[in-house]
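Incident review: delayed structure delivery

Summary: a single-chain prediction request sat in the queue longer than the usual turnaround. Root cause was a stuck worker, restarted by the on-call engineer. No data loss occurred. The affected request and its eventual output are reproduced below so the record is complete for anyone auditing the incident later.

Affected input:
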Amino acid sequence: ASVVAMKEAGMAARQSGMSYAQRRARQLGLLHYAQCMRSHGIPMLDPDANGNLDLGNVPGIAPQGRYTPIFRRADHTCRSLLPAGVADNGSGP
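Output delivered after worker restart:
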């Protein structure tokens, strides 16, 4: 199975155990995190319907990988906005 399929299956399993209010709160937390990251120079896209975050491919903006100093500074500032239980396993929050 592909890594994407495994991540999607894991997300679906986690979401199935959440109430609507919990899913909505999680989605809003991820949205606020993405907005904060953008305000600090990281062209992060809003989370998708499954709660996945993506740096995207924004034309005219140099890629800001997760291991760059600017990304680490933005993440340090914005991390408190992430919903409880969101872990960073190295492939994104």
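Verification: The mean pLDDT is 78.
Action items: add queue-age alerting; document worker restart procedure.
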